[in-house]
Amino acid sequence: MAIHQDASGKAKDTALAYAKGIGCARAGVLETTFAEETETDLFGEQTVLCGGVSSLIKAGFETLVEAGYQPEIAYFEVCHELKLIVDLIYQGGLSYMRYSVSDTAEYGDYTRGPRVIDELVKEEMSQILAEVQDGSFATEWISENQAGRPSFNAMRRMEAEHPIEVVGKKLRSMMPWLKA
After folding, report:
1. Per residue in 92-108, pLDDT tens?
2. Which of 81, 112, 128, 165 has a CA that sits 20 to 30 A from residue 142's CA?
């Protein structure tokens, strides 16, 4: 919950009442600011939840395929199985995920993960956060939209044609439980 203006002096009480009334307060309500919510949301989407994960998945897929592994096997290993790991993290955090996977996988997490996501990645993440905070990302995105989204649309088309998308579509078509 964030209150930016409170003309009545009762905004917090009203917001908490709404939260409780619609069931959002069962696990508790976190107080924040609009700036904190906006900046952390954009940062999370760009570096971890969307940009980071999709880039990591593609890099893993490409590495396996370039090493001669079947694209279908590469897809399962680096993309399809991600849901299992995310569900474990969602349920109990990183520690629960590590408890739930094999000791071999856990050891690889500790010893190989930091080699992939290293200090250079964190430095780049800090730069991306700065771009969110100083408004340069917003300026870039506004300009892209005002120009009719030429770069965005080109990237969207290119990514839709990536081999992982082709393989994934084929494999998912064989999984009737995934059909909408």
Report:
1. 999 999 999 999 999 99
2. 165
* pLDDT tens sequence across 10-55: 999 999 999 999 998 898 899 999 999 999 999 999 999 999 999 9
Terminal alpha carbon distance of the chain:
33
How far is 49 from 127, CA to CA, in rounded Å?
A: 17
Q: Do residues 70 and 84 touch, judged by C-beta distance below 8 A?
A: no
CATH class (in words) of the domain with range 34-178 = mainly alpha
Calpha distance 49→41 (Å, rounded) = 10
Cα 106 to Cα 124: distance, rounded to the nearest angstrom? 26
Q: Where are the domains of the chain?
A: 1-31, 34-178
Share of the chain above pLDDT 90, in %: 93
